[in-house]
Amino acid sequence: MLSGSVSHLLWDLIQHESRLHTELLHAEKLAGIGSFAAGIAHDINNPLQLILGLAENLFDEQDFAAVRQQAEEIVEAVKRTTAICRDLTQYARRSSARDDTVVRVNGRLDEALKIASYAASFHDIAVVKQYASGAAIRGNPDELLHVFVNLITNAVQAMDQGGGTLTMTTVISHSSVDVRIHDTGCGIPPELLSQIFQPFFTTKPPGKGTGLGLYNVKSIVDKMHGVITVESQVDNGTTFTLAFPTNSSSEGDGFP
Ligand SMILES: Nc1ncnc2c1ncn2[C@@H]1O[C@H](COP(=O)(O)OP(=O)(O)O)[C@@H](O)[C@H]1O
Ligand SMILES: [Mg+2]
Question: What is the mean pLDDT of the chain?
Answer without folding.
Answer: 88
